[in-house]
């Protein structure tokens, strides 16, 4: 095995370990470095408990791997030099990570045509989605009995089947948001008597892995910049039209993400630091869109003013502030615009149809508020 292949294999194995640890934490509702007595270097999970994280790690890494190899084999088909997937392990030792920050392949030479960009971009999400569907089917058709949750939260048993009326009081409780495909499985596939509460899906490894698979599929299919969705839309529209549309879509994305961030029902001077920090954030994310600082300031001021106007007209409206972090990554690391390629010939009708199908997959998978903390 070549040294560079050893690196990819090592990163995969480390990520398998970290996602298994994270999967055990989520499934059991425990933190590895914390027990009932507080912090512990010895670890609060036994080997048997850690192994209970394998269903999550194998399911989630399976979808992630298929997604990345969809890109890889398509690139190799077009004789584009490309690396094997680099997996990114990330585990914190308490229940707030999923054990990884994902995976990526690195394309090592210029892509020649819109068709190649389109095919390489669409192959990953379609491959991952094709694996996520049977994973969700299995998860929703093999739900454990309602008493399963009492193994994780014994205190719920004292409250009976109506425990949800008493235990969720907005004290940092985490629930998963809704997407259309999850709703379809809940309505048409699952036994209603076995469906878990939205706050408890994190303890169901196949459902949790399936939800994350849909979340990352939708994230990659955002039609902005050099995301998979950006490659797809660029292939469909071409260089000039796409690079006019992508900044508009990015602006709408930031507009939604920041809605409700500035509280208007309190003393505004009390939150001067939030006003100033958010204004600076807007300048930072919109600066790459324009060579002139003046235009960046104008678009940032326009988005800020529009958000305040919507909040005044519709009190209580809120976007999803977690998207602001991804917006910063898009603007400063991945890019809002798409590079030009030598062959700008339009796509075939078949590929245009596949592009619209990718939009349908995005709509099915996208959650406006994927992770909600009360």
Automatic annotation (TrEMBL):
Give the family per the record.
Answer: Belongs to the peptidase M50B family.
PANTHER family the UniProt entry points to: ZINC METALLOPROTEASE EGY1, ZINC METALLOPROTEASE EGY1, CHLOROPLASTIC-RELATED
Q: Which residues form the Peptidase M50 domain?
A: 56-238
What's the protein called, per UniProt? Peptidase M50
How does this chain sit within the bilayer? Multi-pass membrane protein
Cited InterPro entries: EGY1-like (IPR044838), Peptidase_M50 (IPR008915)
Q: Does this entry carry the keyword Hydrolase?
A: yes
Cofactors (names): Zn(2+)
Tell me one GO molecular function of this protein. Answer: peptidase activity
Which Pfam families does its entry note? Peptidase_M50
